Amino acid sequence: MPLPNDDENGRRRCRDCGEWKPLDLFCSNSKRPDGRGSYCRDCFNVRSKASYAKRLREKQGREVQPRREVPEGHRYCPDCGETKPLDDFPRSRNDSGGRGRYCKPCHNARGQETRQRLYGGSREYHLRARYGIGQADFDELLWRQFGVCAICRAPDPQHVDHDHRTGEVRGILCFNCNGGLGQFRDNLEYLAGAIEYLKGTTCQRTLIHPGVYRISSSTRERRPSRSS
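Structure for Recombination endonuclease VII, as requested:
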């Protein structure tokens, strides 16, 4: 038997707008015998938004911001209050549109503020995020090395050297030494080969008299030229 607001054609009359609509245009309601509520989906959405605005106003003292009309291919940044092209927003996997909520300058400013608030600065954040140590640990390692690079002994090195397989921090190096180890991929055979290569190709100074040196050229055998 149809309910008072239903007719024989399978339609229901919405209690808000008063229109007769098919049942599939009404929201689901498990408490009703037919599984459909008393309000059509459009009216239900209006009621839901009004209820949310009321709770927000009563509990937090805030008003729901009106929806902004944004041109296609653009996005509104809530921090700077400007509407900008999507290319001005960083990429994000967490957003359905593939772009972050804040424009790049505001995104960077928020990141800087977070690093300053949680870690006291970008340096501390970088050390902890990448190497698992803090600035105090860095300073202690450098103190143990007497304030110089662990390889070339250059003063005031600033680069953390770590084992790329285990992640363990090994020491503090200067820019050139740290980059050199990376280029040789921490391979002992490559490094030993480089030493032997330099021994065979680098000119040597030999003292023959006080203040007089003889420069000896490479002892490595040269390959014959194509013309010989």
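The helical segments are 41-60, 104-119, 122-131, 135-144, 175-183, 188-201.
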